[in-house]
Specification:
mainly beta, 6-stranded mixed beta sheet, 5 helices, Vps62
Amino acid sequence: MGNGTSATKEALPIDTPFKLPSPLPSLPQGEGFGNGIINLGSGLQVCQVVSLNKIWATNEGGPDNLGATFFEPSQMPQGFSMLGCYSQPNNRMLHGWVLAGKDDTGEALTKPVDYTLVWSSESLQIKQEGAGYIWLPTPLDGYKALGCVVTTSPEKPSLEKVRCVRSDLTDDCQTDKWIWGQGKESDPNGFNVFSLRPSNRGTQAMGVSVGTFVAQNTTSASISLACLKNIESNLSCMPTLDQVQAIFQAYSPRIYFHPDEEYLPSSTRWYFTNGALLYKKDEESKPVPIESTGSNLPQGGSNDGSYWLDLPVEEAAKERVKRGDLQDCQVYLHIKPMLGATFTDIVAWLFYPFNGPSRAKVELITVPLGKTGQHVGDWEHVTLRISNFNGQLCGLYLSAHSGGTWYDASELEFQDGNKAVIYSSLNGHAMYAKPGLVLQGTGNIGIRNDTAKSNKFIDAGARFSVVSAEYMGSSVVEPPWLNYLRKWGPNITYDLAEEAETVEKLLPGKLKSAFDKFVKSLPKEIFGEEGPTGPKLKRNWTGDEV
């Protein structure tokens, strides 16, 4: 290995720019959504540049040891200036953007006064396409740099190359995803490149991602870059209700359930009208039927244990309701501004009357875990992140148990145009982007999450309703069940020792102790110690997904 480009270079995913399978249909007219430019206040306008020129690449290190590529924006609208370069790993197709800025006042943007060389690949024996140099702009007092500049020359870039931004128009940022490094991401003393995101994120937070990256010689180093800020909390670039509905119709995912799945989703109306009951503490013998809209559910307050929902008492009805009704399933949408209202998150919620039992994989053996994992009232969600600059789908967040994962749009499977394919795991209903087995554990021991295509699926755009969009005011009326802030199922505590002992009897001797150690490490929600709560009590309701 050495400097320079090898004679034969293997094709990498990044060599193919990603495009959604179908163009976005024409949207209904609105105020500022999809217009290409967003005004952040004090004369600072920004646009999202998706046309990128390759500057330098390394073909090893980073995720999957495939290297990373560094770009600068091209084809910027007249009057707009570069704020920094973009980079991404080579293990996925080219799909990214970086903001450019325009100053309408003459005070929001300024040239840097100098550059500092952060890092150079000049002396490294790695697979690379020439030598790369990463420069940090030195801002004028009262201004901040938003991104690095990448060159293939040891000469400092021109001061005209990039612009710094007035400090009051910026916000703090933090590292996000690992882009590249010679060692492992967890190596605190190695050189690493990370994407950036605002430190404070949520529906009320106004930090704006720039699309740039930070280069650090140690992961403990302070970040010398900033992100932007929507200082006037301008929401005029958010989509109207008609636009939201058109966007979701275009991008609504197709969700596949496992062929053996018995516990399917339903609408809340179906659940209520088929015998679900409201219980009150100290009055357990007098459960109350629930109105179809949830109008007789307690509203507001807190999850204080005073109320909970449960399945019908009669055994036949209970077993029928547990299984849900796919034909009556409804997808419930929460629409919220994110990243300073430069993006819209469409959070699609699914309700399952029942969460089925878990199974464990112990080396080559699959064993049932009795009642472990069972609970009443399961809420799962997928989040579509939409650019408010152009209406494009940027990525999906798929919930899985108490967490989840972001997937770039380029990493997704699509059907019927722009409909991403999602797989719901057997019994547990965790969401994944690919079929197969995901093991929740360590090594070859863990809880099974099995996914596969089947004839059981839903097109989320076929039956959906917007149930909350706070920024729209009175245009969206929240249903009463959404403001029921207590438990959607009773507390059920399983005997951990008894469940584990039953399984251990089925295992060879050498696996018993390993399985016992694994069981004791499981989070308490696996054993049903807490009844599930509704969407409004989830941390992502007002915050970011991670």
